[in-house]
Inverse folding.
């Protein structure tokens, strides 16, 4: 086989490994594709078949062993984006109508919500700033 043919086949293998990467979002296929590119470079530089396979195996293994745990850790440490009523917890609200154990109204981020006080003996007067502790149904529990 001609020298050009060998490195071209390595690039074809790299592209072939890149397809499942895109289809399945499994980064391991990308790491194997990079190993195949390293094999192509080895072939282009005149390395023999054994050297090409060894370089492919070493680069692929090194990437999987080193990069995969780092990527996994970064994915796990990513903060979750709160949405819906979960996004309201911890927000500030302004009291529109007196809020006590039995009810009231607050404005949270431009929306008016029914509210009740978390503390059974506490109450908040109109104009007061309160914090949303939780959402219970359609009622904001504030303190």
């Amino acid at each position: 086989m001609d020298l050009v043919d060998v490195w071209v086949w390595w690039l074809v293998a790299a592209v072939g490994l890149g397809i499942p990467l895109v289809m399945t979002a499994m980064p391991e296929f990308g790491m194997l594709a990079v190993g195949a590119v390293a094999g192509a470079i080895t072939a282009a530089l005149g390395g023999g078949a054994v050297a090409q396979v060894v370089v492919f195996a070493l680069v692929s293994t090194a990437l999987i062993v080193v990069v995969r745990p780092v990527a996994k850790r970064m994915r796990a440490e990513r903060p979750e984006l709160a949405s819906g009523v979960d996004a309201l917890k911890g927000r500030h609200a302004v009291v529109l109508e007196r809020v006590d154990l039995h009810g009231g109204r607050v404005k949270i981020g431009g929306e008016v919500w029914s509210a009740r006080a978390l503390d059974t003996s506490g109450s908040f007067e109109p104009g007061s700033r309160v914090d949303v502790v939780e959402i219970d149904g359609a009622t904001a529990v504030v303190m």
